[in-house]
Design a protein that fits this description.
The chain is α/β, with parallel strands linked by helices. It contains 21 helices and 12 strands.
Amino acid sequence: MQIQDLPYPDPGVPDARSGPRFLWWLGRNQLGGQLKSLAWGLLHFVAVSAQPFCVGFAIEAVVDRSGTRLALTGGVMALCGAATAIGDTFLHRTAVTNWITAAARVQQLLARKASQLGSALTRRVAAGEVVSVSTGDVERIGWFVEAVSRFTAAALTVLLVCVGLVVYQPALGVVVAVGLPVVALAVLPLLPPATRRADVQREKAGRATELASDTVAGLRVLRGIGGEELFLDRYRGASQEVRHAAVRSARMWSLISAIQVLLPGLLLITVVCYGVHLAQEGRITVGELVTVYSSVMVLAYPLRHFEEIAMAYSFSRPSAKRAARVLSLERVTDIGGSRAADAPSGDLYDPATGLTAPTARLTAVVCGDPDAAGQLAERLGGHPSEDSPSVLLGGVPLNELPLGSARTAVLVQDKDPVLLSGSLRDLLDVPASGAVDAGAALVAAQCGDVLDALVQGSLDADDPMDARITERGRSLSGGQRQRLALARSLYTDPEVLVLDEPTSAVDSHTEARIAEGLRELRAGRTTVVFTSSPLLLDRADRVVLVHEGEAVAVGLHRELLRSEPRYRAVVTRETEEEAALGEAHKDEQASLSGVLKDLEDNRLAEIEREEIEETA
């Protein structure tokens, strides 16, 4: 896989049982790129490590006054230099390719998982952790996958050089062959504490990221209630904790780096001292001493990759663990589907609550608990909890449909819809039936003033469809964002549309017009609206009261107001005391009416008696 071929047609099915298994799965799926990087790495490192041998041979040729050997050695050194340059160039190219393609694979897997889980993802994993995994953790995972091939090439080069030194000069070669493993493995005892400190740093950074995202999302509300400084102080405290953890982690890695510099230096001093002693005794030549000395000097370069692979694994292991945790989450419904891909039509029925939304009707659902309403809306969209049965559409369980078919049939707009940055044309560039025009959807959602505001905010946009929308629509008010999101949902024109409080942030006049436009545009389609607004309820074909997880009353808005106290309490915000006073007032009125009726009956009786007496 090359960078220009990204994204992957299919990123595959990851082994998400643990972080190390996930890293191993990534490496196996990039075996071709790893082998290329290993080959170029071997060429580069071997060419670099061969230079000391060439220097030694050249010195011996000068001592022996052999011009032929000197010329031959010079040619070999030139070839080694060319191989070093070529190997380094293509090693960097293949290593970066492995890094980017591994990171892209992880990002595709995370995006696919987010698409499969939908809103259930943020209920099971904190939003800050998802952001952390899809940004910083992806880079660290790619770093380790890329570093494996370079480390393998460096390790094989060190092994080859040790064997070559033992064969070339056994006396000094044995010293180097024994000392190099000690140098390479000396930092192993320090890796567990370094890893723990890195884990603590990542954990604190994830919490700080989550706090920052929550603060930014609610910044407007915080400013309104004067809590901005409080949350900023909390973030400052979390940021300082991250800084302290990063300093502690850096100290440990500085110690590891110092050891990686100190021990090769001690080995070099040992080789020089012992080599000088052997040269004085005449057991080795000057050329052989220079060769061994230069080889130990050059080996410091591949030995640095031992430290890098340790650092890369320590940093990527917790990242891979978090990524594997997200990727291991499964959707309650069947993603592949066991039925045909054609979406059914008919009534929408929830067995858990007994709620039924008849086909081609506008059904309003009143629920006193906003959280329960949100969960019910998600369940109607095919996202049931683990202990809830699947919703039925036309008698067919949604979890038996392929994921794409289920989402085509039922669309859920939650109470806090997201507007991505881009133009209004991009916002409405969504899968749609084609039966609803974008202009009609915008008119039904009463977006006229929103379009004017977007055009005024975009100096270079004459067409409202080209007007720019800022990130999450932050330049718009809450009601304007709601109306744009509603227009997007209406334009999609699904078989079943579920709206959770679509007009909670608009004024009553606009809400009345939206209710009428929604009813007209969705004629012949199934629509479910979760609301407690009398303006929307009065225009619904059917109103269902859900109380304590059960549909307890069905009827029209005005009928339920008269006959159902629980419905009246939710819609009119009537308290128990007010209801009791109202009942008492009704009883008093009934008693007074009874007394007046008795007085009137007595008066009529007296008049009848007087008439009888006069007649007699």
